[in-house]
Design goal:
alpha/beta; 4-stranded antiparallel β-sheet; 22% strand
Length: 378
Amino acid sequence: MVIRFQWIISILLVFALPCSGQAGLVIHSKIAIDFKLQGYDGLKSILIYSGTLPAGGIQDVETQYNGLARLIFPGGQTYPIIIGSKSSVATITGSDETPSFAVEDENQHFYKLLVDGDPVDNGYGFVGLMIQGKQLLESSSSIKTVNELQAKKAGFQEFMQHNYLDLSHSDLLRRLIGQYFMMHEYVSYHREGSPASDIQLRYRREVLSGVKTLLSLLQDHIPENELLNYCVGLYYDRGMVTMASFIVDNFNTIVYCGNDNRNLTVFPAHLKLVNADGSTAGKLGFLLNEEKIVSYVSADCPVSMVRTVIKAREIAETKNEGVNRLLIVVPLEKLSEKHRAMSRNVSGGTILYVDDESWVENSSQNIRLPLIQKILVQ
């Protein structure tokens, strides 16, 4: 049975099991293939297993993880696999084909329900619960008014609160939170006789209210700074930097990453710099007659990138006033396109990037972000 890759991504989010007892999965491949198994813990992805199988090879994956995992192939093909209290056997016949299972296997039953589209009720246990979540996601696309938005948000809140432990071992939790905020985009905030500026104000208030509610709702499960960073990332990843910054500004004291409050103000002159396009920009010590400001960032910390972009915009504006400052980004991991893409959110300004992974690894681990400061070069 072959299922289109695009559909697999959507059906991936519809099943999880409770986390209890030893779980296992046996993978049998009829072809030589690399693969990995990815699971979920709240808002985090976790690697369950990564390996290679020859044609005819068998791998017994023993894990404490119970829930929905993703079987991922190098070409990006992704398939959901249930890892439950009973061992399952998945047979791989090709990266573009759905794994097959024994008739009595819960995965076989799972795929049959997804393909047939048969209605389920609470008697299906966690299958029914996850399908309810899928239906809840789908039902939110038709809302148009603020009252409908608030009613639907209440439905999302109740569903997440009552079922968190089950949702946390699937990708569905992240999808629910993402759609919880996306719903704000579907609504008209216009009131007759009100100025146009009122639309943006009401929109921002609704988003802010949603953030506050989720913080209270999930406070026993997810650290508040972790949840806030996730919410900020939902907007930053869509290029909505101003909205992301609005959230950061309203939760400034509790939206952060890392724990170390060190200040690193002295930088070696030999550090290599690159431009946003990856081209060489020389060494730090060669930059003269400019006030140098560094901003530490991590691709896993959206608030650090939001603050960096806002700072770069401020510097670009003051440049027209004759103020000569330069922003240098210091990534806490290997410099990537995601870091350099920050420049696309800044008009009329220049951002340079440190491209010296060894220095970053030795001096900058676990720094509390965001961190933006003036530096000295020696």
